[in-house]
């Protein structure tokens, strides 16, 4: 009964978080046409998968399969609406917040945990990413759950938690592979950073067993999912597109240092608290604090070298920053409130740190990132010809999702990465047009690039009638003659 009561209480906390976000962000969740182009890609892949098309062999897909499959089942239950899809992401965010809070609370107490959780929740674009149909946050949520399950093992020494942690981390990798850098860090977390054990050259049997219990389920589940969805036979989609990105210094996303600095500038106050926390970790020898510190250093090094760099990678560093900030809050709290005899000299440094923190809060510039442009006139045209449409060709598949229309699965993802890497050529695009003969064409993102190919343009002019173009020619709508 006690376990059931605890489970219900924890479930209520997660639902309260979801309810809170729904209350403060109901209008954006329900009415924003598209937060990011990735929303359209994820939604149309899900729609096509639900229509019976297979990932990789039919639907071009440069990401692991799990999120698409999960979202498909979710929308089958709750309806194919943008609100339902965003609600699933919000539930993942609630799970991440829950694990994050409990990890910190068990070591540092409720005040540092609550403060760090609020910092994470209010970090740059976290709320927006909590309601955007994108795969980064679900992957991080599952990774945090994996770490939290290891933490539960350390509390009660039930190896079931280690096995479940390995399975959960496999699910994280099969959602988005960018959490793979945490694997070696989690190895150290499993052995609890026991430096003496390593130095003795006699790694205990217990450590070997625990590591195997985590790694074997991880590898097994990851491989089984990959084999089932034929993921490993299409490495060109999963790997080549991401690695073969030629430099484009005209975009801020290829200027890693400048773009990363721009992102970090939104949370200078949090970073300052994290620096205090890092000092407290080494000063007071908080062994568990080494994990978020190693996470932060590793993530920063990766983001400084990975190109292109996208804003939705920011939680990779926001999570450890806020985690480390909890140690800073604990240090300041102990300095001000936990000493029976207050020594004025001892309060000088903590007081100065608080003043600096307040100043950084004031100086941190707001830099919100709006949703991508929408064109309701285009949407109305798509709906107008919906009944006579079997296929729609579009470089912005969110229009197809709202209309519940199929796009040729080969071009479900017409992303910047795919075009920039040369994985999708003009000839291939023209071949798709000739194969499917879509009754509608909507150009809304890569219009100039697509029309720069003379063969593509000639085919459209010969077979389609233009029904709409905006004032600058960047958005167009065509129907089959």
Structure write-up:
- With about 475 residues, this protein is mainly alpha-helical.
- The chain has 2 domains: about 1-365, no CATH class; about 375-480.
- Helices cover about 65% and strands about 5% of the residues.
- The protein has 23 helices and 4 strands.
- The protein has a 4-stranded mixed β-sheet.
- The longest helix is centred in the N-terminal third of the chain and has 30 residues, at about 1-30.
- The radius of gyration is 25 Å and the shape is globular.
- Mean pLDDT is about 85; it is low at about 195-200.
Strand content bin:
under 5%
Q: Which class best fits the helix and strand makeup?
A: mainly alpha
Rg on CA atoms, Å: 25 Å
User: Which descriptor suits the 3D outline?
Assistant: globular
Q: Whole-number average pLDDT? A: 86
Work out the helix count: 23
Low-confidence stretches: 193-199
Q: Could you state the oligomeric state of the chains shown? A: single chain
User: What is the string of helix and strand elements?
Assistant: HHHHHHHHHHHHHHHHHHEHHHEHHEE
According to DSSP, the number of beta strands is 4
Cα(first) to Cα(last) distance is 68 Å
Q: How helix-rich are the residues, as a percent range?
A: 55-70%
Strand order of the largest sheet: 1-2-4-3
Largest sheet: 4 strands, mixed
Whole-number count of domains: 2
In short:
The protein is mostly helical and 481 residues long. 65% of the residues lie in helices and 4% in strands. The chain has two domains: 2-363, no CATH class; 376-480.
